[in-house]
Amino acid sequence: MTHFKHGHQADWSKRREAEREGVLRAKAAPESEAQGKVESEAQDRVESNAADKVACKASKTVACKPGSTVPALETELDAFGDAAWREVDTDWHFNGRPQQKPPPGDWRTWLLMGGRGSGKTRAGAEWIQGLASGEIPGLAHDGRIALVAETLGDAREVMVDGVSGILAVARSQRPAFEVTRRRLVWSSGAVAQLYSSEDPESLRGPQFHCAWCDELGKWRHQRESWDMLQFALRLGRQPRQLVTTTPRATPLLLALVKDEATVLRRIRSADNAANLAPGFLAGLGERYGGTRLGRQELDGELIADREDGLWRREQLEALVVRQPGPMRRIVVAVDPPVAGEARGSCCGIIAAGLDETGRAVVLADASVEGASPAGWAGAVVRLYRRFDADCVVAEINQGGDMVASVLRTVEPALPVRQVRATRGKWLRAEPVAALYEQGRVLHAGHFGALEDQMCDFGPDGLSSGRSPDRLDALVWALTDLVLVRRSEPAIRHL
């Protein structure tokens, strides 16, 4: 028996005992009222939660038989064996929460925003599988589906092969996954093609009946990929799309929320507590409960930018370019984590360049979390080689000369410029924020995690209380490129 990450799971013997007790209590009422009471309670349970829906099926199948007696009920409930309970358990019609089901009515976009582990992926996989197999009406036998994720790797590892992906939830009419062609094919004739937000142009040409977009909030070329998909949704009588994402207050998501053709549903991590690891919610709730980060990542709230912040998402959106020009200089900046705190810490690693017009361009965010010194040093060197950078700018407040030593164990000839912070983070960030206001900084795509820190950074730091590692690295990179005066070398190309 396969259990899915976001499916209904239970201890069968305990659940059967609980359902028997509930049914027997109902039958203890006068015989003339028993059947109606059981039926009423069963119907109420249908609209409550997954476990109660299973109870409803059992009570309707067994307890609602005319003339049943208490001893007979015990026998019949025992006869409703584990196999039958498990069959009900895997039935999405019974164990899926209402917010995970397609909304009724005339809509083009179903926007499902939820916290981590709330069941977003399971909802998306079930919708696609239901449409392609014919369990959910609305898709022709030759239906064409787009599966779009941030990267092709995400599309395969999460949407298709993931624990809650399409292949995992396909109980019947399991599709064939043609890896080389990046597509799923059902016996019904339906075909789902995988796409990456990193290549918006790949959506120019094909056409679809429906689409599933996963983690739209962190797509790199968010607006371009979304626009190309809208032009491609042109088959059938009513093209539709599902967006499953952890909320980020990007201009696109804010616009979707306000769109009259969008149906918005929110789900919390706590709603799926029965299917999450013990202690997961308690641990994160203790650390992030009530914070902006906790409300976003656990409660699925769309959090607006801080009023006292230095950056706004609308401002950053206007500065995104897809193809930066030639670079005069390129640096990789690194903000190492505190020594001895690799677990749970983040090492900020940002690549940025100075173009021929004198504007800075943020090229990449290669920050790593939970890495050892050798791990983050390797990430720095790989980014340095990828862009053929001029040097690495390394903050040494936390590690002193050890930072350069660790980097040079990976690349002995690595040019490292060591910098030490003498002012607070806010004071160092203010001149860099002014560069953005002047239009002197561009972003080569969307960098979701970095932009989250930028828009959540105030005089007291991040609202979560964590260190703004990515932002620190960005500040060092742009300070070195623009704010530190030095002679200009010749123009070079990427």
UniProtKB/TrEMBL annotation:
Transmembrane segments: none annotated. Gene3D superfamilies: 3.30.420.240, P-loop containing nucleotide triphosphate hydrolases. Keywords: Viral release from host cell. Residues 1-51 are annotated as: Disordered. Residues 8-47 have a biased composition (Basic and acidic residues). Residues 333-479 form the Terminase large subunit gp17-like C-terminal domain. InterPro entries: P-loop_NTPase, Terminase_6C. This is Phage terminase large subunit-like protein. It comes from Hoeflea marina. The lineage of its organism: Bacteria, Pseudomonadati, Pseudomonadota, Alphaproteobacteria, Hyphomicrobiales.
